[in-house]
Design a protein that fits this description.
With 206 residues, this protein is an alpha/beta fold. The chain contains eight helices and six strands. Helices cover 55% and strands 15% of the residues. Strand 3, helix 6 and strand 4 form a beta-alpha-beta unit. About 13% of the residues have low confidence.
Length: 206
């Protein structure tokens, strides 16, 4: 029998004792109340320990250290040099996440552009904005399932109000979003791409 059923039965006993009401039953009521309080406190402690244990296990399962993922995890200060290289290449930086439908739809186009990069002197970096709880359960399995060949990094920086305008002052923060730049110019696109649209924009940097 569960503790809550026991407490319910005790309640009915107390009601019965009140109806009879004499000195003997008053003493019985005191005893029952003391027992009920001790039982309730004990159940609360047991439930609290169980909750803490379950929470610890959830954190252990959902979060994992960046080193174990095989993917670079950057805050914005660490990511920023990748957005400001002064070499001869064209750099295509796509901001995406596994929970973003339009992002997933356009990823094959960036993959195709990446395959053409060596011959055309450009490179693609896919910057994931997935939350830490999704790295192990969603992001890594997605990368493996889709066999992504572009470089993938994770931006893990909660101060969006600080880094979003540093990437582009007009960016609302929505994704997909793409930065294309070389050492002479840069453009930011808060929109999805088709392969043809993306290839056309890149060609303008040549």
């Amino acid at each position: 029998m569960s503790a809550y059923k026991i407490l319910l039965n005790l309640f009915f006993i107390i009601v019965h004792c009140i109806i009879l009401w004499d000195l003997e039953t008053i003493a019985m009521i005191r005893m029952i109340l003391c027992f009920s309080i001790l039982l309730f406190i004990g159940c609360g402690i047991k439930e609290s320990k169980k909750t803490k244990s379950e929470t610890s296990e959830l954190v252990k399962n959902e979060f994992t250290s960046p080193d174990s993922l095989g993917i670079p995890i950057y805050n914005f200060d660490e990511l920023e040099p990748l957005l400001n290289k002064m070499d001869d290449k064209i750099h295509i930086i796509n901001f995406w996440a596994t929970w973003c439908g339009p992002c997933i739809k356009e990823l094959p186009y960036f993959e195709k552009i990446n395959q053409e990069g060596k011959a055309n002197n450009w490179e693609v970096i896919l910057v994931s904005l997935d939350m830490p709880s999704m790295w192990k359960s969603k992001l890594v399995p997605f990368i493996k399932a889709k066999n992504l060949r572009s470089e993938v990094v994770v931006l893990n920086d909660p101060d969006q109000n600080n880094w979003i305008p540093k990437i582009d002052k007009n960016w609302s923060g929505s994704i997909p979003a793409t930065l294309i730049y070389n050492r002479k110019e840069r453009k930011f696109y808060e929109q999805p791409f088709t392969y043809e649209m993306l290839k056309k924009e890149i060609q303008e940097f040549r």
